[in-house]
Amino acid sequence: MKIIRQVIVFAGLIALGGCGAVSALNKAATPLDAYELRAPGDLPQAGRSLNRALSIEPPTTSGALDTDRILVKPNAVQSLYLPDGRWASDLPAMWQTMVLRSFEDTGALSYVGRKPLGTLGDFALISEITDFQAALDGDSATIRLRLTARMVRESDARVMARRVFSAAVPVDGTETLDLVNGFNAASDKVLADMVRWGLGVMGLRLPGA
Fold first, then answer.
1. Which of 120, 113, 105 has the alpha carbon at shortest distance from 195?
2. Are 98 and 37 in contact (CB under 8 A)?
3. 152-157 LR contacts (CB < 8 Å, sep 24+)
4. In this predicted model, what pLDDT tens digit does every residue of 160-190 receive, in sequence order?
5. In angstroms, how far is CA 58 from the centroid of its own chain?
6. Which DSSP letter does residue 60 get?
7. Which of 129, 128, 116 shows the shortest CA–CA distance to 55?
8. In terms of CB atoms within 10 Å, which of 42, 47, 94, 141 comes out highest?
9. CA–CA distance, 124 with 20 (Å, rounded to integer)
């Protein structure tokens, strides 16, 4: 499949041609389609609710990820953005919303809010995203997601627990929608693991955990 694409490189806007990862748009002025990842829809409901308030901090990221653009890596040293799609909001804001909704949907906590807009909670979830990209390999790809999460007790700023979460999801295809669906699957896994872990730190286990 011959693909001609325009990509944004970190040094600036560069037009590249050749066989590659994504279906192409050749006009830089063409509006980008927006994609939104969702919180997992199959998290179990808590049998009881904890009288706990959790504040979700927006995650920190590298400069390459602190954007609404969808990152792809054709090799270990090159980073590009999809030319025809973007996230509906920048990655830190989107991820914060997904984490918040994931905890809310379990019904396990009395309150889940976001910082800096939320109020002081009993605990704060702080995270750093280090990988959130599609690694390309010919006509297929692997979605790689990796982050470090810390659960902090607000009363004394003590780190109660720390854990690294990761997912690698193979994708058959390199069209934008193929990659976005892969991102959704990787996010579902990481979010489900994070919610179970976070609730466990606060003293509650979900059914099946």
1. 105
2. yes
3. 152/123, 152/124, 152/125, 152/126, 153/122, 153/123, 154/55, 154/120, 154/121, 154/122, 154/123, 154/124, 155/122
4. 999 999 999 999 999 999 999 999 999 999 9
5. 11
6. B
7. 116
8. 141
9. 41
User: What number is the average pLDDT over the span 59-82?
Assistant: 95
Region 60-76 average pLDDT: 95
- pLDDT score recorded for residue 209: 55
Question: Residue 203 region, left (φ>0) first, then alpha (ψ -120 to 50), else beta?
Answer: left
The two three-digit tokens of residue 41, written as one number: 């829809």
What value does the mean pLDDT of the chain take?
85
CA distance 58 to 91: 9
Helix axes 91-106, 176-201, angle to 10 degrees: 50
Report the chain's terminal Cα–Cα distance, integer Å.
Answer: 44
What pLDDT, on the 0 to 100 scale, is given for residue 29?
Answer: 53
Q: 200: phi > 0 → left, psi -120 to 50 → alpha, else beta; which?
A: alpha
**Residue 48: per-residue pLDDT:** 77
CATH, domain range 44-77+84-201: 3.40.50.10610
